[in-house]
Amino acid sequence: MLSRQVVEELRNRIEIAEVIGRSVTLRRAGRNLLGLCPFHNEKTPSFNVIPDKGIYHCFGCGAGGDVISFVQKTQGLSFMEAVKELAGTVGMVIEDRELSPEEHRRIAAKADLHDVAEAAAKYFEETLMVRPEGLPGREYLKKRGISLDTARKYRMGYTPEGWDRLATFLQRQHIPMELAVRAGVVKRNDRTGSFYDAFRGRITFVIPDEKGKPIAFGGRILPEIEKRDSNPTPKYLNSSESEIYEKSKTLYGLHWARNAIQRNDRVILVEGYFDAVSLWQSGVEEVVATCGTALTPAHLEKIRRLSRKAVALFDSDEAGMRAATKSMELFLDAGVEARRLDLQGAKDPDEYVQKYGGPAFEEALKRAEPLVEMVVRRTVEKEGSSAEGRVRALDSLAPVLRKLPAMLQVQMVGRVAGWLGLREEDVLGRLGERAVASPTTAAPSRWLPSKELSHLLWLVIHYPQQVAPEVMQTEPGWITDREDVLEAIAALCSGNSLPDVVSSMVDGDASTVLRKIAVQPALYEEQHAVGAARQILAKMELPQLDSQIAAIQLQISSPQALGDSSSTLALATKMQTLYARKVALAALSSRRA
Ligand SMILES: [Zn+2]
Questions:
Q1: What is the pTM of this model?
Q2: How far is the CA of 57 from the centre of ligand 1 (A)?
Q3: Ligand 1 centroid vs 45 CA: distance in angstroms?
């Protein structure tokens, strides 16, 4: 396990402004740096980096955290992966727990397979770009309107006809054929024991992992070879799964699209390699492709880390409809809002942008229909308006409608009722009363601290050493009744760093408030910090004193106290002390700092 000290040391050694500055243009604004938020679309910068506190905060969308969370969010990494990534840049070695020999072997094997895939990618690329035998590939791309720059960006390649060109190339690089087979680029003829290339006479697409390392390939056969071939070969071919490639977890193009997905806060899902590449070439960069596999929850998990909005461009035939219905449930489960675009005038997105260009595609995107609406509408249309048809439609829609979030459900029940000519009560009745969520679900409350508490938090964040003695003398309940905030105050006062404290808080509200306060311009000079803290704490204590005094007054005037002079005396003394304290506090809290 990773110790807190290691993480803290990493934060100290990493310059947060430098890391964020690589992907966001930052300019200085007082103590802070300011830029356009990479997590939401904005024209005026509201994204703040506070280098001396090691955190960032966006006033536009509330995104924020430390340098590790920034790397996690922008690169789609887990905490541990982000830590390792950052550690690598400053030469820190992060020791995992001891690996077993078996785990060491597996890691080494994966590294080997990555090397093989990289070597194959280079061979395909070089063939396409510079070798004479790459000419048919270059001509084909030209015909399809793909520029060599685009091909280079996407690491496209070409593999000529012939049985073992890649195999021979890899052998010359001293790569064992057994590894090449496991990486899925070479196959073994079990009868003769010889090796042959998995991809022949095809344009190749590198399928990278999230860091950009090749893990598999896709290949499109050249049309002239396809026609000539006596044994029909599939138009598209994909690497088989391997130790480094899992289809259900891989989306083609995610590595290149990540920044654009976050910038534009949406992902465009297409089916084919050429769709993705062509869209990118025409300026629509937030695009990923499923490439022959159905959408999986793992795919959506990757998308959700980057954006909650998706536009899917699936085929509009019967199979496409079934896929849409299936994927809609996945989208609902993942909490990703999905729309569907039916492109008119082209058979796929590739053809569409080649014909009409990127701006026309952007325009078409505005017509995208919520996926739920489309599925519901199409089901109603398909089943027809006969009495039996309506029952069938309602039956097949019920499971879908039950899954919808409350507001959407109410809306869709209304529509379905309208389309089917039924009363809303009947549709609701079919769903079962329990299934229908109340539309008045309260939004999560936004916590806002009082002005005093905000100022106190600012002081604790900026001058923890100076104000800690004052704060620690104060009864915690007087400061706030929020346990998480009290814990944060205690942690800051005992010397923990702000990023450490913020990252260990669970509640979004409270950690957002802390970050916002940290970004505020200097409220107090250092020499006034202690005085200001005393004054604020006094203000917080005053109402407590008042209620204590009131309680004692009650006790003194009670019949029991009247008959007991010694206890009356004790109460009176206590009252006197409280009054004295109140006078002192009142004087303190009204003084201008
Ligand atoms: Zn933002």
A1: 0.61
A2: 8
A3: 9
Q: What is the DSSP pairing of strand 287-289 with strand 267-270?
A: parallel
90-104, 207-221, 507-521, 575-589: segment of lowest average pLDDT: 90-104
506 Cα to the center of ligand 1, angstroms: 20
State the average pLDDT for the chain.
86
**Ligand 1 centroid to 341 CA: how many Å?**
27
Q: Which residues pair with 391 in a beta bridge?
A: none
pLDDT above 70 for 98: no
The CATH number given to 249-367 is: 3.40.1360.10
Pick the CATH number of 101-245 from 3.40.718.10, 3.50.50.60, 3.90.980.10, 3.40.50.720: 3.90.980.10
Residues 6+ apart with CB under 8 A from 486: 476, 479, 480
Predicted pLDDT of residue 592: 55
Strand order in the sheet with 214-221: 157-159, 202-208, 214-221, 236-238
pLDDT higher than threshold 90 for residue 572? no
How far is residue 333's CA from residue 405's CA, in Å, rounded to a whole number? Answer: 10
Q: How far is 285 from 431, CA to CA, in rounded Å?
A: 41
- Domain spans of the chain? 4-89, 101-245, 249-367, 374-435, 451-590
Domain covering 4-89 assigned CATH 3.40.50.300 in the classification: no
**pLDDT given for residue 454 in this prediction:** 92
In this structure, which residues have their CB less than 5 angstroms from ion ligand 1?
37, 39-40, 58, 60-61, 63
| Rounded Cα distance, 314 and 132, in Å | 37
